From TrEMBL:
Biased composition (Acidic residues): 414-423
One Pfam assignment: Thioredoxin_6
Species whose genome carries this gene: Nothobranchius furzeri
Top-tier EC class: isomerase
Top-level taxonomy: Eukaryota, Metazoa, Chordata, Craniata, Vertebrata
Xref: PROSITE patterns: THIOREDOXIN_1, THIOREDOXIN_2
Compartmental location: Endoplasmic reticulum membrane
Protein name: protein disulfide-isomerase
EC number assigned by the record: 5.3.4.1
Gene expressing this chain: TMX3
Domain of life: Eukaryota
Length: 452
């Protein structure tokens, strides 16, 4: 009897614990399709075997807790996409984990860094109205302080406003959109024509010009970054979508002498540059250390130095001599713009071969560096076995022997190719995908299952 009571008690406690956890993150099943319609949902589509999903789990719980405690209308859930694969593919889930905000008929994918603050910010931004009204000067100033880049529609109802609303409801995944009357803007801002779309950033503002800037959505995509950024692999990937050239100062951020001597003045000077017309074609920033750039260009850049990347064709430009003055920087930039600067890299066939070889080499190097013994074992043992076999085959004089060797060679070759292909795929994922990795549904699944 006592035992029954005890287990009953345990059951109740477990149920209680479960229900508090559920209150933050709800486990979703096939009924979700019908029950979701009246609410806004933030859903983590995961696979039980996926390592990145496990890493996300505690963060996801915090996201749920934070949204709940802040009184957000967004409900947080998670769905085992392997158990409900039909529904998952209906929502366009192709890798794990996939984070989506579902709002009526719309599904917004989250592609940013998987941290609590970033995800909560995303949920709040996307769950709210696509265009937020700024009714007063105070409100406008408040928002200017909070956001580095501010898109504002100014004017009465118009076809442009409709277009703006459409663009906003799509690009709200990246940035905020506001609307204001002219009276809500600071006095220093004078607009020659209304209605118009203005972006406030880098201490200034400029307006959208339908004839020069192309479609509103491509303009917003181009201008949604500050002119000067701290750049890492993830931002570089995002910047690639703007179609601008990316000029990066490669520096050691932690080095205090460099910080005071070089970057600060360089930064200030660059900021001045940005306000000039060049910012239409360029995105500026700095990157800490040269590791990422080195692996990107498969070479070695000095620190400090400047590199300009053309993300649309993977070409890059390096100054012929170290840049120390503003004139040199301007000259370097104009050389790139007028086509006289030497372009390296590219996305041609030879570059791709080079990339595969480079990745294979750096994988082998990293294995040796992290554990030389394992490296010897992994690469040395097969080599030893193969040479022994070759030796045996060569010394045994028979026609069959040479055929065997050919077969062996062929086999060896195909294996290598497969390996390289896999690495290329990984590389491509690293380059093309966001810094936070996503696991492919297909190929990797069985592998992951085994390790767990
Ligand atoms: C960057 O690449 C694009 C696409 O190939 C090309 O049209 C453009 O001219 C390139 N820009 C520079 C400065 O080389
Ligand atoms: C391109 O710009 C560089 C740097 O300003 C200049 O030295 C060079 O003469 C220019 N070339 C052409 C073809 O305009």
């Amino acid at each position: 009897m006592a035992e029954v009571k005890a287990s009953l008690f345990c059951g109740v406690v477990a149920a209680l614990l479960c229900s508090t956890a559920l209150a933050f993150v709800e486990d979703l099943d096939e009924t979700f399709k019908d029950t979701r319609v009246n609410d806004i949902w933030l859903v983590d589509f995961y696979a039980p075997w996926c390592g990145y999903c496990k890493k996300l789990e505690p963060i996801w719980f915090d996201v749920g807790a934070e949204l709940k405690s802040s009184g957000s209308p967004v409900r947080v859930g998670k769905m085992d996409a392997t158990a409900y694969s039909g529904m998952a593919s209906e929502f366009g889930v192709r890798g794990y984990p996939t984070i989506k905000l579902l709002k009526g008929d719309l599904a917004f994918s989250y592609k940013g860094p998987r941290t609590k603050d970033d995800i909560v910010e995303f949920a709040n931004r996307v769950a709210g109205p696509a265009v937020r009204a700024l009714p007063s000067k105070q409100m406008f100033e408040h928002m200017m302080k909070r956001h580095d880049v501010l898109f504002v529609y100014v004017g009465a109802d118009s076809p442009l406003k409709e277009k703006y609303n459409d663009v906003a409801s799509e690009l709200i995944v990246y940035t905020y959109f506001f609307s204001a009357s002219e009276e809500a803007l600071p006095e220093s801002v004078s607009l020659s024509e209304l209605p118009t779309v203005v972006v406030f950033k880098d201490g200034g503002h400029f307006t959208y010009d339908e004839y020069e800037d192309g479609s509103l959505s491509s303009w917003v995509n181009k201008e949604r970054f500050q002119g000067y950024l701290q750049i890492d692999g993830f931002t570089l990937y995002e910047l690639g979508e703007t179609g601008k050239l990316v000029a990066i100062a490669v520096i050691h951020e932690k080095d205090p002498t460099e910080q005071s001597d070089r970057t600060t003045p360089a930064r200030n000077r660059v900021t001045v540059l940005i306000s000039s017309l060049i910012s239409r074609d360029f995105q500026f920033g700095h990157m800490d250390g040269n590791d990422y750039i080195n692996s990107l260009i498969m070479g070695e850049v000095a620190v400090p130095s400047v590199i300009i990347l053309n993300t649309s064709n993977e070409q890059y430009f390096l100054p012929s001599e170290p840049i120390e003055t503003m004139e040199q920087l301007v000259q370097f930039i104009s050389g790139v713009l007028n086509g006289s600067a030497q372009a390296y890299g590219g996305d041609g066939f030879i570059q791709r071969i080079k990339r595969v070889a480079f990745d294979a080499k750096s994988t082998i190097m990293s294995v040796f560096r992290s554990s030389p013994l394992l490296g010897c074992f992994l690469f040395g043992l097969p080599l030893g076995v193969i040479s022994l076999m070759c030796y045996g085959i060569c010394t045994a004089e028979s026609d069959d022997g040479s055929e065997d060797m050919d077969a062996l060679k062929r086999e060896g070759l195909t294996d290598e190719e497969e390996e390289e292909e896999e690495e290329e795929r990984q590389r491509a994922a690293e380059l093309e995908g966001p810094a936070e990795e996503e696991e492919d549904v297909g190929e990797k699944a069985p592998e992951e299952k085994k390790t767990d």
